[in-house]
């Protein structure tokens, strides 16, 4: 795989680069990894699912841009505490499986192995069975990406730290991962019109790899790739 170095970008430009990687992957003929962090915060909404009730006045007061990504899933506050990875795969790549869910497996395992190698304890890969047995989320947990579990995401001590999403096109597949180095559930709750109690509920089901440096995470994940 071709690995591009970590870049700190404007959030809109970071999302555009993900689209460019997907559009060009068939022509390039090789899998490409691109790591991103942002230079200012944005609220990023998923393509599908129920539309969250965004408080646009709050977003304007805080100077937070509202963007939409091409993959599905819940809302994410993309600020300086989120390390993002885009993986663009050609249509005939061996890691692109007919089963959409199973296509996530190698990426989730790579992150889980990397975090364990870095010394984080109680790291677990979310199984298909666990993800499907959870109670349906409600309120802020239903609106936020990190409020519920999907197969092959990663938890630490049962609390979500890695979110995954996917885009499939004729010309390739894009896998997207977001790892929490820090988390600000209060700001996300306000942007989505929820109160402090909802923020505290979200905080209880999420965690971070606080203290880990982005470059250390990147090196550990890339050593764990298949």
Low-confidence stretches: none
- Tally the beta strands: 10
Number of helices, where a helix is a run of at least 4 consecutive DSSP H or I residues: 8
What is the percentage of strand-forming residues? 25-35%
CATH topology type: BirA Bifunctional Protein, domain 2
- Domains (count): 1
Structural write-up:
The structure is a single chain. With 226 residues, the protein is α+β, with helices and mostly antiparallel strands. The protein has one domain (2-224): BirA Bifunctional Protein, domain 2 (2-Layer Sandwich), CATH 3.30.930. It is 33% helix and 27% strand. It contains 8 helices and 10 strands. The strands form 2 sheets. It has a 7-stranded mixed β-sheet with strand order 1-2-6-10-9-8-7, with helices on both faces. Strands 4-3-5 form a 3-stranded mixed β-sheet, with helices on both faces. The longest helix has 18 residues, at 11-28.
């Amino acid at each position: 795989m071709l690995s591009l170095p970590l870049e700190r970008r404007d959030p809109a430009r970071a999302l555009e680069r993900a689209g460019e990687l997907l559009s060009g992957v068939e022509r390039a003929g090789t899998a490409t990894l691109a790591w991103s962090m942002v230079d200012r915060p944005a609220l990023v909404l998923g393509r599908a699912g129920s539309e969250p009730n965004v408080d646009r006045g709050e977003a304007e007061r805080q100077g937070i841009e509202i963007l939409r990504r091409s993959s599905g899933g819940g809302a994410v506050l993309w600020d300086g505490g989120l390390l993002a990875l885009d993986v663009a795969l050609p249509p005939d790549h061996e890691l692109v499986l007919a089963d959409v869910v199973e296509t996530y497996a190698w990426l989730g395992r790579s992150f889980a192995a990397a975090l364990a190698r870095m010394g984080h304890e109680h790291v677990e890969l979310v199984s298909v069975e666990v993800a499907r047995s959870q109670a349906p989320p409600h309120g802020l947990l239903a609106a936020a990406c990190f409020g519920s579990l999907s197969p092959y995401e990663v938890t630490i001590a049962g609390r979500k730290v890695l979110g995954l999403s996917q885009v499939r096109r004729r010309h390739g597949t894009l896998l997207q991962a977001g790892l929490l180095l820090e988390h600000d559930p209060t700001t996300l709750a306000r942007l989505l019109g929820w109160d402090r109690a909802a923020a505290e509920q979200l905080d209880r089901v999420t965690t971070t790899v606080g203290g880990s440096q982005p470059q250390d995470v990147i090196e550990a994940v890339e050593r764990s790739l298949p």
